[in-house]
Design a protein that fits this description.
The chain has 18 helices and no strands. By secondary structure, it is mainly alpha-helical.
């Protein structure tokens, strides 16, 4: 929709309102639409101003959908996406022709969608992203994120709760032996998993952070991997073992990454080991966090 409106405005710039009818309106439509309606659509400045405002409102949604549905988008993008979308919409609503009721309904829809999509595991990812450290979260969301981190560390990794709490406190305050070095926070880094694994691999919190931050932002990449898997484990190769098929899928995945890096994109995370690429029961983590949160 955003691309369609963009192209419509481009055609207006190139052809002008008078000549746009031949580009935007088919001959069949010309016979069906009243002359006054065509003139109002093609010549009215208010109409084109509203089209421009619609683009400004919906463009961040399209941008973030493209990002989170990508092959290499991880879970820490989710909270930032909704916050960015809400900020842009609120800024552009002031210039829109919508009445107060329509503006309220649009913001309520965004809030409703965020409540449906964002869970404590997403808050945990935002908190463990070293670039933001939960800057987009309020106090209630931060507590929910910490509770989720503790649940995963206790139930999945058998790490003592107090040990994780101490490290979370040092991490948020940027203090202590591990997190008190200022030069580390000033360093540039694109991938939060690399930051945790490369700089703090010895910490218990790093084990939890790496596990959470490697989760994809959406199921789109997983669904695409099913398609790749169907080409590998096909009817003609139906005697492949699960282990062999998983290794071939791993090779195919990282080969595509290397090709993209060769084309100049060096910010992509490459799996270090086959274990990083194997299936992990992330859904169970989400369910546990949600159940604890509802209590």
């Amino acid at each position: 929709l955003v691309q369609l409106f963009h192209r419509l405005l481009e055609q207006l710039t190139v052809f002008g309102a008078v000549n746009l009818q031949g580009v935007a309106v088919s001959q069949e439509a010309t016979q069906m639409i009243d002359k006054n309606v065509k003139q109002w659509i093609l010549d009215d400045e208010v109409f084109w101003a509203q089209i421009s405002n619609v683009i400004n409102i919906f463009e961040p949604i399209g941008k973030w959908l493209k990002i989170v549905k990508g092959d290499y988008s991880t879970i820490h993008f989710a909270v930032k996406a909704f916050c960015d979308i809400r900020r842009v919409i609120q800024n552009n609503l002031a210039l829109s022709s919508l009445d107060d009721k329509e503006k309220s309904e649009l913001l309520e829809f965004v809030d409703k969608r965020e409540k449906f999509a964002i869970k404590p595991i997403h808050y945990a990812a935002e908190l463990l992203n070293p670039k933001s450290q939960g800057s987009e979260l309020d106090e209630t969301q931060i507590l929910s994120a910490i509770e989720c981190i503790l649940n995963i560390s206790k139930n999945k990794l058998n790490i003592k709760e107090q040990e994780i709490i101490d490290e979370i406190a040092d991490y948020r305050c940027r203090s202590g032996k591990l997190f008190g070095n200022n030069f580390i926070w000033k360093s540039s880094f694109d991938n939060p998993v690399s930051w945790w694994k490369g700089l703090y691999s010895s910490s218990s919190l790093s084990q939890v952070a790496s596990r959470i931050l490697m989760m994809p932002a959406s199921s789109a990449a997983t669904e695409r991997s099913f398609s790749v898997y169907s080409h590998i484990h096909s009817k003609k190769r139906n005697r492949l073992t699960n282990d062999r098929a998983a290794k071939l899928l791993y090779v195919s995945h990282n080969e595509n990454l290397l090709k993209k890096i060769g084309n100049g994109n060096r910010s992509i995370f490459i799996s270090d080991t086959i274990e990083d690429f194997e299936e992990v029961d992330w859904q169970e983590d989400v369910i546990e966090c949600d159940a604890d949160d509802s209590d």
